[in-house]
Design a protein that fits this description.
The protein has about 210 residues and is of the alpha+beta class. The protein contains 2 helices and 12 strands.
Length: about 210
């Protein structure tokens, strides 16, 4: 709130005194405006620092994200993301067994971990997930949202095979199969059409 002391009755002052009174009034007004602007700027900076601190990721990902192609199902591409401090390789998705398999490797006598993000449209479980490492069952930490299931687990490093089994996988053709079927149908149609053209050409020549 601005607090301005207005000039006194100017009728008793000379022109120079009146000018001095108005200059003091304007200077006081400018000081008040400048002070309010400085306070607003300080409040804005404090609010900005607070928002940045609040929105800062307190647990940033320090390991790479491995995104594996699980195939094209119902004309949609699905990917399984694996965040791990291990080297992840040989990813494989088996829809018939509702199974995901991959290998992890790292320096011996160190701890490895994985966070696997699985789209629910690709693979899900109604009775709990089964996770094994080299055939030994482990209990993962499970977090899910409307679209994905996140499984987190750790292990002692070496070269190991991880298997994740759900209860249901998407019951559609695997990637590439729909395109092969379409190409096969087109080949049959073109063959029939070509034969009809040849037959019509022979008949026209005979006439």
């Amino acid at each position: 709130m601005l607090r301005i002391v207005a000039p006194k009755n100017l009728g008793v002052f000379t022109r120079r005194e009146c000018l001095g009174q108005w200059l003091c009034f304007v200077w006081q007004l400018l000081e008040q405006l400048h002070g309010r602007r400085c306070r607003q700027r300080r409040n804005w900076r404090h609010s900005l620092r607070h928002r940045r601190k609040k929105n800062r990721d307190q647990h940033p990902i320090l390991t790479p994200i491995n995104s594996f192609d699980a195939g094209i199902w119902e004309w949609n591409s699905y990917y399984v993301d694996v965040i791990s401090n291990s080297t992840v390789s040989d990813f494989h998705f088996n829809p018939d067994d509702a199974l995901i398999r991959f290998n992890v490797s790292g320096t011996n006598n160190t701890t490895g971990y994985c966070r696997v993000t699985i789209p629910k449209g690709l693979l899900y479980s109604e009775n709990g997930w089964q996770v094994t490492i080299n055939g030994e069952p482990v209990t993962p930490t499970i977090d899910e949202d409307a679209e994905n299931t996140n499984l987190y687990f750790n292990y002692n490093h070496s070269t190991k095979t991880v298997e994740i089994m759900g209860t249901d996988a998407i019951p559609e053709f695997p990637s590439g199969t729909p395109m092969l079927l379409i190409l096969a149908v087109l080949a049959v149609v073109l063959t029939i059409y070509k034969r009809k053209l040849q037959k019509a050409s022979i008949q026209s020549n005979q006439e």
